């Protein structure tokens, strides 16, 4: 045990010595990537909040001022005891709803879609009623979209014919699904999506120049060919038409397993996209968070593309 402790001390000293010192001889500590799968970023009150899949007992949250350096909150945003399920907390998305003065977290637990609320973006988020939004059916990746007329919709994945994406209207409580409105959006239909297995998942919808854009991921998250495509529609309920040059993200900059994205507007009004990739070409976990820019062309039907240098966020100590 003593020799082990000595070895650890030597490793730490070697790491510190190897770090580059600035002009004031201050030690610059090593930087580590943000390990979040299915990441989502919200800008609120001039602070960025990142949520994602990582913890076994809930949902983590990180904060940043610049999208580059992040700090992990000491407490979970969502804890196991505040959710109906006791495992598999995935793909959280968080929105501040001004009319309700609440933060809403949409997330998956034990392969069911759920929603929890909080008075703070840091949590704790909790379910008022500890049950899924669809109690009798496995679904994942629920994503909120509120149209310009104030009408709310929920997009999510259903486990029928592989994974495919559906939409439904929400009641004004932003929790209750109007099941009679459930409508299929997209399923596996393009060659790039057919590597393995039958998966269209991780929807995120925004509106641009009266056109609705849905980003989604194809192939299994375990596959190095996991990627991001998009579809367009004239209504939140569809019908949806996939972009014929999909995917728009697949194996960029030597990354593999790139997918499950969401979009947000940064402090300068620039539209960004956040997604995860495998830890490295040989290991899936823990997945890492990345950020890039989103651009729309000037065509009659604007084409969406991912541009600019890909940002690799790091943990700040």
Automatic annotation (TrEMBL):
| GO MF entry, a single one | hydrolase activity, hydrolyzing O-glycosyl compounds
Q: Name one GO biological process term.
A: xylan catabolic process
Looking up PROSITE patterns in the UniProt record yields: PROKAR_LIPOPROTEIN
Q: Locate the site labelled Important for catalytic activity, responsible for pKa modulation of the active site Glu and correct orientation of both the proton donor and substrate.
A: 141
Look up keyword DNA damage and say if it applies: no
Keywords linked to the UniProt accession: Carbohydrate metabolism, Glycosidase, Hydrolase, Polysaccharide degradation, Xylan degradation
InterPro entries to which the protein is assigned, alphabetical: Glyco_hydro_43, Glyco_hydro_beta-prop_sf, Glycosyl_Hydrlase_43_Enz
Residues annotated as the enzyme's active site? 38, 201
Q: Which Gene3D superfamilies match?
A: Glycosyl hydrolase domain, family 43 (2.115.10.20)
Similarity-based family? Belongs to the glycosyl hydrolase 43 family.
Q: What is this protein called?
A: Glycosyl hydrolases family 43
Recorded source organism is Dysgonomonas macrotermitis
Traced from the root, the source organism's taxonomic lineage reads: Bacteria, Pseudomonadati, Bacteroidota, Bacteroidia, Bacteroidales
